[in-house]
Write a structure and sequence with these properties.
Blueprint: H1 5-26, H2 29-37, H3 42-70, H4 74-98, H5 105-112, H6 115-133, H7 138-141, H8 144-168, H9 170-195, H10 198-215, H11 224-303, E1 308-311, E2 314-321, E3 329-335, E4 340-348, H12 353-367, H13 381-394, E5 403-411, E6 416-422, E7 429-431, E8 437-439, E9 462-465, E10 471-475, H14 490-499, H15 505-516, E11 527-534
Antiparallel strand pairs: 1-2, 2-11, 3-4, 4-5, 5-6, 6-9, 7-8, 7-10, 10-11
Helix pairs in contact: 1-9, 1-10, 3-4, 3-11, 4-6, 6-8, 6-9, 8-9, 9-10, 10-11
Length: about 525
């Protein structure tokens, strides 16, 4: 039914017109003649109509049970009780119809005590209750205690009506039915005209027709044609009510589905927006982080020595390749004084930001010009490592962080290289001008790590005399570990150095670059090296 007031008024008029049509037909002599002319089987026709009413009422009961399952409102609960009572009411009317052919003793008792009329009173009361609590939720507004009280009152009314019926007769109960039917008709008429609910309109239609059919004609001496017409209009109202419940259920279902789809769409939009905002935030943070990392890369590269350095009587070339953006390898070459060149190469555990920060710490600590750190600068690398180990243990670095380092000092006048190892796992390779090869392995030392509470290492330096044309390559393990990077071993690196003995120093860099470049984007460890050549 439409929500338009004019349409609701027309539907109400239509219900009264149907009632008038019923009154005309039930009192029409023409209809009786018509039925008699066609030899109508009144009994079977009435039987079928009553059976159809039972089936339809049972479907209404199931519809309301399903409605209660998906929407816990008192309206559906009241309709379940009402349809169940109406099903019993019509059921015993059906049993009364077939009583002449089938012996049903319990039906006689049912009719004897006017229980059918009492059930109709209860139905009328439930319909009135529905008006006031229809939209309330059972779960939200009715406790278990209140529900029990509700059923007790309902049973109490049933018993009271039964006792009054026994005392005053069936006329009293019928009077109550008519009064309640009249009240229901007025209440549902106002309810329907005010808000146009489909169910309230159907109940109004049923109340008007069912009350009219029940009131007129009255008595037990009715013609078969009148009984048939009465039953036809009763069945018509039940069918009309079933249609209303069916439409209401699926209207509610689709409205609920539409509402859920709207909620889903809104949630999807909000989620999409939130994801977009979060993604934008992450992208901004990532961009900031990349910017910070790029700044750190520039800072780290800026403090590395130039790839080619020349001093009085000695020349250096170097290379540094990070497997991550920031390298955990580091080296430095610097002048201690007019006669001595200091140098070191180190490899911090791991790589990336933490390793890079630790390498920068070592750079700042070793090369600092403050009074506190001047003692670290000198021509005795073993003392430098002792103090570095001590200071490293005084810092709050994580226990798992450590580094290995190889430190040396070269005297440009005497050509003596003084060196010490701080746990370096790959040792520098010396290639003499005459082709002799040896490792700088006379010094062994302990890594720089957080073991100061348990162990104080004794770093001991060694020295070696270099001659003109000699070359020494200092490197980290990334250069010669084929499992982590390029296909090069210590033996292969030695061969490169020996084969280049008569070549310019830059030739070594070119050969190593040629070997590293194909793997530069897939390195698993940092690579650092520098080569010292005595001129």
């Amino acid at each position: 039914m439409n929500n338009n007031l004019k349409s609701r008024i027309n539907n109400t008029i239509f219900a009264f017109v149907i009632a008038i049509i019923y009154l005309v037909l039930v009192n029409s002599l023409t209809i009786r003649v018509f039925f008699d002319y066609f030899n109508t089987d009144y009994y079977n026709a009435i039987f079928l109509l009553k059976l159809l009413s039972l089936i339809v009422l049972f479907s209404i009961l199931l519809i309301n049970i399903y409605s209660l399952a998906i929407d816990t409102k008192w309206q559906h609960f009241v309709f379940i009780l009402s349809s169940f009572l109406l099903f019993i009411y019509v059921g015993f009317d059906f049993f009364n119809h077939i009583k002449p052919y089938i012996n049903l003793g319990f039906a006689d008792g049912f009719l004897k005590y006017n229980i059918n009329s009492i059930i109709m009173v209860l139905i009328q009361i439930l319909l009135l209750v529905n008006v006031f609590i229809a939209e309330e939720s059972i779960l939200g507004h009715m406790s278990r205690r209140k529900t029990i009280i509700f059923f007790i009152v309902l049973i109490g009314v049933f018993i009271a009506l039964g006792l009054l019926s026994l005392k005053y007769g069936i006329v009293f109960v019928q009077f109550i039915i008519y009064v309640l039917a009249y009240i229901n008709a007025i209440v549902y008429l106002l309810k329907y005209l005010l808000n146009g609910n489909l169910i309230s309109g159907s109940i109004l239609f049923m109340t008007i027709i069912y009350t009219t059919v029940t009131i007129w004609p009255m008595g037990t001496e009715l013609l078969y044609s009148q009984v048939l017409i009465k039953q036809f209009f009763k069945t018509l109202t039940v069918l009309f009510l079933a249609n209303a419940f069916y439409r209401q259920l699926f209207t509610f279902y689709f409205l609920e589905k539409d509402e859920l789809n709207k909620q889903k769409d809104n949630y999807a939009r909000m989620l999409k927006k939130e994801i977009k905002n979060r993604t934008k935030g992450l992208e901004d943070m990532n961009q900031l982080l990349r910017s910070e990392i790029d700044s750190a890369i520039r800072l780290q590269k800026s403090i590395l020595p130039k790839s080619t350095l020349t001093f009085d009587g000695v020349q250096f070339i170097s290379g540094n390749y990070a497997c991550d953006k920031l390298s955990g390898d580091f080296f430095n070459i610097y002048k201690n004084d007019e006669e001595n060149i200091g140098m070191y190469i180190l490899d911090v555990s791991g790589h990336g930001i933490n390793a890079a920060l630790l390498s920068i710490f070592c750079y700042n600590y070793i090369r600092s010009s403050t009074e506190r750190s001047d003692k670290y600068i000198g021509n005795e690398p073993q003392n430098n490592l002792k103090r570095l180990y001590y200071e490293f243990n005084n810092m709050n670095f994580p226990d798992e962080l450590h580094l290995v380092i190889f430190m040396a000092s070269y005297n440009m006048k005497t050509r003596i290289l003084n060196y010490v190892s701080g746990g370096m796992n790959v040792l520098p390779i010396l290639v003499r001008k005459n082709g002799d090869v040896r490792n700088l392995d006379d010094s062994e030392g302990f890594p720089i790590c957080k073991m100061g509470e348990f162990y104080t290492p004794d770093y001991t330096s060694s020295e070696i005399q270099l001659e003109k044309g000699d070359r020494v390559i200092f490197f980290t393990d990334g250069l010669v570990d084929s499992r982590k990077g390029i296909d090069l071993t210590v033996e292969g690196l030695t061969q490169v150095m020996v084969s280049a003995i008569d070549e310019d120093l830059s030739y070594i860099s070119d050969v190593l670059k040629e070997k590293i470049d194909p793997f530069v984007n897939v390195l698993e460890d940092d690579i650092t090296y520098f080569v010292l050549e005595v001129n």
